[in-house]
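Inverse folding, one chain.
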C-alpha cells in the first residue's frame, strides 16, 4: 500500500513540473466543462427551432440581433448562433469519442484475452484477422463503409473530399 501511494505522489509531482502537461489538463477540463454546461453557457439552443429567427441569418461576428442578442461568432444561413453550435457539437463529439474508445477497448480486451487464454490456432486466427484489418488504409475502410451503407458517394465525396484532403495533408 505504501509503495503504490509513493509512486502516485511521484507521478503527480512530475506531472506538476511540466507546464505543457498542466496546460493540456486545463484545456481539457475547460472543454469538458463547456460541453457539460452547454445548455447554460450557450446563448441559443441550435436544435430548438422556436428560438431561430431568419432575420438573424448570416450575421457577422459580434453583430447585435433584432432582439439585442450578441452573436460573438456570427450566425449561419438559418440564424443559428455559431458559438452555440460549437458548444452543442462539442457534446456530441465527446460522446462519440468516449463511446467508440470504450467499445474499442472492450473488443480489444476480449480478443486479446481470448488469444492469450486459448492460444494455438485461436491466437493465430485472431492475429491474422487483426493483420488483415491493419493492412487496409483507414480511408479505404471509410469508403467501403460508405458504399455498404448505400450512401450516395458522389454527393458525399463532394462534401467531404476537401476536408479529407486537408486531414491527409496534416497527417
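Residues assigned per position:
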Amino acid at each position: 500500500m505504501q509503495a503504490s501511494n509513493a509512486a502516485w505522489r511521484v507521478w503527480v509531482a512530475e506531472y506538476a513540473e511540466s507546464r505543457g502537461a498542466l496546460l493540456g489538463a486545463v484545456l481539457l477540463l475547460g472543454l469538458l466543462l463547456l460541453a457539460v454546461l452547454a445548455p447554460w453557457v450557450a446563448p441559443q439552443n441550435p436544435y430548438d427551432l422556436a428560438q431561430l429567427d431568419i432575420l438573424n441569418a448570416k450575421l457577422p461576428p459580434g453583430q447585435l440581433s433584432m432582439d439585442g442578442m450578441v452573436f460573438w461568432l456570427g450566425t449561419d444561413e438559418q440564424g443559428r448562433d455559431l458559438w452555440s453550435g460549437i458548444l452543442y457539437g462539442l457534446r456530441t463529439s465527446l460522446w462519440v469519442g468516449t463511446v467508440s474508445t470504450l467499445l474499442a477497448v472492450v473488443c480489444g480486451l476480449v480478443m486479446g484475452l481470448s488469444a492469450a487464454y486459448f492460444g494455438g490456432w485461436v491466437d493465430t486466427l485472431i492475429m491474422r484477422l487483426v493483420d488483415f484489418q491493419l493492412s487496409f488504409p483507414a480511408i479505404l475502410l471509410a469508403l467501403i463503409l460508405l458504399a455498404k451503407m448505400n450512401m450516395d458517394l458522389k454527393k458525399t465525396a463532394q462534401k467531404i473530399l476537401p476536408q479529407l484532403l486537408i486531414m491527409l495533408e496534416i497527417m
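Helices lie at 2-17, 19-36, 38-41, 82-118, 120-134, 138-148, 153-170. The beta strands are 63-64, 70-71.
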